[in-house]
Amino acid sequence: MAVYHARKYPPKHQPDAVLSQANPVSATWYPVLDAKNVRIISIVPTITWAVTQPTPLEAKLTIDGNVIVFAVGNPVSTIPYSAHWWEHLNETQQNLGALSGFTPYRAFLVEGRSVKVEVRITWAVTQPDPLECRVKHARW
Q: Are 126 and 49 in contact (CB under 8 A)?
């Protein structure tokens, strides 16, 4: 019986990829991570706003050419949101849920040869400040 080994060594954890974007421009994608041979452990965006609530807060994951969008409508100011898979939804309608302190059911979110993580926020009147995102990842 043949055994498939994707790589000789397990992925090595990397320092977190972090974005802190003051005065983000509405609907502009900001890069957080752009790398090769990456395992994404978690994606956690946060937005701080004062007056006008922005919507939606989105994280876009492009993996081996496939685009997956995680979003939450009407995000609460300063609450960290975590990317979660919902198998019954398509790739452009995945969920950002209020962070509960753990990633349920999975050791990691996804892995691929070419991985890019971007975040954005959209609002009507008042610019939120800042837009932040932390990506925990490993590389092989």
A: yes
Of residues 110, 92, 103, 107, the one with CA closest to residue 37 = 110
The candidate with the shortest Cα–Cα distance to 49, out of 10, 76, 14, is: 76
Rounded to whole angstroms, the Cα distance separating 132 from 119 reads: 8
Please name each of the domains of the chain with its CATH number: 12-139 (2.60.120)
CB 29 within 8 A of CB 118: yes
Q: Three-class SS of residue 92?
A: helix
Task: Report the distance separating Cα 68 and Cα 139, nearest Å.
Answer: 20
Neighbours of 113 (CB within 10 A): 11
Whole-angstrom distance, CA of residue 16 vs CA of residue 121: 21
Condensed to tens digits (0 to 9), the pLDDT of residues 58-73 reads: 999 999 999 999 999 9
Rounded CA-CA distance 48/112 in Å is: 31
Distance, CA of 139 to CA of 113 (rounded, Å): 10
Q: What is the pTM of this model?
A: 0.89
39-52 pLDDT, tens digit per residue, is 999 999 999 987 77
